[in-house]
Amino acid sequence: MKRNHIAGEWVDGATAADNINPSDTRDVVGLYARADAGQAAEAIAAAHAAQPLWAASTPQQRFDALDAVGSEILARRDELGDLLAREEGKTLAEAVGEVVRAGQIFKFFAGETLRAGGELLASTRPGLSVEITREPVGVVGIITPWNFPIAIPAWKIAPALAHGNAVVFKPAENVPASAWALAEILSRANLPAGTFNLVMGRGRDVGEALLNDARVSAVTFTGSEATGRKVAQACIGRRGPMAKFQLEMGGKNPLVVLDDADLDVAVNCAIHGAFFSTGQRCTASSRLIVTEGIHDRFVAAMVERMKTLVVGDARDARTSIGPVVDAVQLQQDTDYIDIGRREGARLAFGGDVRETVDGKPGFYLQPALFVDTHNGMRINREEIFGPVASVIRVRDAEAALATANDTEFGLSSGVCTTSLKLAAHFKRHLQAGMVMVNAPTAGVDPHVPFGGRKGSSHGPREQGRHAAEFYTTVKTTYVAP
Predict the structure, then answer these.
(1) Which of 103, 364, 469, 477 is an S-S bond match for 74, by CB 3.0 to 4.6 Å?
(2) Cα gap 321→267, rounded to integer Å
(3) Is 282 a catalytic residue?
(4) pTM recorded for the entire structure
(5) What's the mean pLDDT in 377-406?
(6) pLDDT score of 240 more than 90
(7) How far apart are CA 46 and CA 34, in angstroms?
(8) Residue 481 has pLDDT above 90, yes or no
(9) Per-residue confidence band for 209, with pLDDT thresholds at 50, 70 and 90
(10) pLDDT of residue 443
(11) The dihedral of CA 11, 17, 22, 24: what is its sign?
(12) Looking at the structure, do residues 224 and 236 belong to the same domain, yes or no?
C-alpha cells in the first residue's frame, strides 16, 4: 500500500482505496491510503513546526532541493508518464508532456529562489530609508483536481516551497498515484521534516481540516466553481485569522472562427482545444463560435476530422482520445449530451458510449459535436468537462465577440483569423485571462501567468513570477541611521 507522508515519515491512512485504470477497469493501479481529519491535523502541525526552519533556509538550499526534484521528474518522464496515463486516462503522449511540464515548473521555481529581490526607496522624510521585502505566508494548504495530477500539484507546490512556505498537499482522491510519485521524489529532496506533507483522502475529511485550521495561512484550490465558493466562504468565515485563498474554477471557453480564418488552422485549434485530454481541461474550447460565411465548411471539416480520431486505451500508441476519468464523469458527460438533445441541438457527430475497446472495459466516450445551438442553452452555459463541444452560428465578427463574452466564466478565449486588425480587436476585447490567436485555447507555458476573470478565478495568478503574489506577503520597513 502507498502511504501518506507526514512529518518526514510514511504513515498508514485511516482507510485505503484501490486506484482503477479507466482504460481497463480490471486493472488496479495500486492501493492508496486515505487519511482522516486527525491525520490531516497531524500534517498541519508538522508543517507549522517546520515552516520557520525552511523560511530561514538560504536561496541555495531551496534551489538545490527544487532543482533536484525537477531533474528527477524529467529523467523519469517516460515512467511517470505511463503511470499518469494509466491512472487518469489521457493519452501517453499527453501524459509524458504533462510530466515534462511538471519538471520544468520545478526547474523554473528553483531559479526563482535565486532571483528574489526587493526594493530600497528614499523616504519623503529626511534621514529615513524604506525597504520593501517579501516573506513567506506560512503553511499553505494545496487542494488539486484529477485532470492534471502532476502538473497542477507542481505549479502549486514548487512556488510554495521556493518562497519559504511549508505545504500540506491533498490531491484528488481518484488520482493518487501521480501525487504519491511526486511526493516520494520530494521526500528525498533534503527538506526539513514536515516542510512537505502528502495527505491523501476525501474532501470532507482532509479538505475540511485544511480550510478550518487557523495554522493554515493560505489555501490554493483548483476545481469546480461550486466547491471554490465553499473554499472561499470557509477561509473567510473560520474562527481565528482568515486564510488567504486562491481559486481556479473552470471555464466555458469560446473559440471564435471568423470568415477569413484559415480553415485547416481553425479545425486544428478546435479539435485540439475541444477534445484532446478527453476534453477534461478547464481551458477546453467547449463553445465554437463561427460566423456565417465559414460555418458550413467548418462543420463539415470538423466532422471529417472527428471521424479520424481513435478512442481507446490511453497507453496505446494508436489512440487519439483516451477514456473519461471515471464512471461519475462519464455519467455527467452523457447527461449533458441528453440535455443538449432535449434543448433542440443537433448532434452532428459522436456522443456514443463504448463499454469496451479491444476487449478492455473502460469509460469510453466518442467525442461529440453539437450544431444548431444558441448561447442560451445549458450546454453552452455550464461546464461539461468532457469531449463535448457546441457550434454556435453568428452573423459577423461583432456578434461573435458579444457571444464569446456572454458567459459567467473568463478563463481562456481564442480567435482564428488572418486579419491583423481583427486579431488586435479580439485580443483587446475578449473578456478572459488568457487569449489565443490562431492557437488552441488549451496550453500555457510553465513560465507565464495562468488564470482568468469573472467566475473562473479569484486571487493572484498562478505560475511564473506572478506566483509570488500569492505565496508571499509584503513587508515595508523604515530604517533610520
Answers:
(1) 103
(2) 16
(3) yes
(4) 0.97
(5) 98
(6) no
(7) 18
(8) no
(9) very high
(10) 86
(11) positive
(12) yes
Report if residue 359 sits inside a domain: yes
pLDDT of residue 461: 96
Examine residue 442 and state whether it is found in any structural domain, yes or no. Answer: no
Helix-helix angle 397-405:420-429, to 10 degrees: 20
Residue range 56-109, pLDDT digits in tens: 999 999 999 999 999 999 999 999 999 999 999 999 999 999 999 999 999 999
Number of other CB atoms surrounding residue 389 within 10 Å: 29
Other CB atoms within a 10 A radius of the CB of residue 291 amount to 21
Q: What share of the chain is helix, strand, coil (3-state, %, to 5)?
A: 40, 25, 35
C-alpha–C-alpha distance, residues 159 and 164, integer Å: 9
Say whether 248 is catalytic. yes
Write down the mean pLDDT value for the chain. Answer: 97
285 three-class SS: strand
Rounded distance, CA 377 to CA 391, Å?
Answer: 12
Report helix, strand or coil for 196. Answer: strand
pLDDT of residue 439: 98
116-130 per-position pLDDT tens digit: 999 999 999 999 999
Q: How far apart are the first and last CA of the chain?
A: 60
Kindly state whether residues 233 and 355 are assigned to the same domain.
no
The pLDDT tens digits for 265-303 are 999 999 999 999 999 999 999 999 999 999 999 999 999
Report CA 28 to chain centroid distance, whole Å.
Answer: 25
**CATH value at residue 186:** 3.40.605.10
- Catalytic annotation, pick one of 282, 383, 416, 462: 282
In three-state secondary structure terms, 174 is coil
Does one domain contain both 119 and 227? yes
Set 248, 269, 383, 416: catalytic member: 248
- Structural domain span for residue 199: 4-249+447-479
